[in-house]
Amino acid sequence: MKILVTGGNGQVGSELKEISFQNNSYKWFFSDISEFDLTNLDKIQVFLDNVNPDVIINCAAYTDVDNAEKEFELAEIINSKAVDKISKWSSKNNSKLIHLSTDYVFDGNSSIPLSEEAKTCPLNIYGKTKLHGEISCLNNDSNSIIIRTSWVYSQYGKNFVKTMQNLMSKSKTINIVKDQIGSPTYAKDLAYAIVHIISHNKWVPGIFHFSNEGEISWFDFAKSVKKYFDFNVKINPVLSSFFPTIAKRPTYSLLDKTKISKTYGINIKKYEFSLEKCIKIIKDEK
Description:
- By secondary structure, the protein is an alpha/beta fold.
- It has 9 helices and 12 strands.
- Strand 4, helix 4 and strand 5 form a beta-alpha-beta unit.
């Protein structure tokens, strides 16, 4: 089985690459923008024809939430139009497609964990373009799987944990938002969940939610980062208005993971367990 991973140098792509070294039963192909530029829509079919994968894991995305407000066309091309091309190819060629999406397709007005059937209503351009990509997937390839996730971090790339590590190592006091609620996702856990789905004896298409367990704020997340890095820093809880941003963020985006857990038998780990594991890896890299 040949597996193509787009966005191979991103957080989830990098974790999948690590897993691939341990799994020789599949033939893995990792692409990044230099090999597979999703902004070049005319070349997408040509690239996929050449690779001819049995499975496509689409990790590539335009993820700069604030800049997406100014670069709508670019975000729409990568997050929607490219997905339209990929999902049409996967359907025509009977290739299994797993497409990663986001909690930002929701407006954040819920007070209970969001199921896959919850109403979508994105607050910003990034969320809108990701929702457009989901719609293309579902319309073009009824056999595709969409995995929505949230607050992704890992030892790779730029993310909240790495940002906190840098700030806490240099500052005596930091301010962190307390009124945005969700749950972090360790990219390694998501990567293993994806491989589990591919290896499962039954392919069940549709939308699934995945993150680690735990209902927390960014402030709570920062406190946990401080704990596992053992930093000596004061963390002040502040409202979102303390940090004005170009794009609006959902205030509540906790995902209900019941469906993916029951359908594929995936064990959802508590966020603190995974965070401690990730931080240990980051420490050991020094």
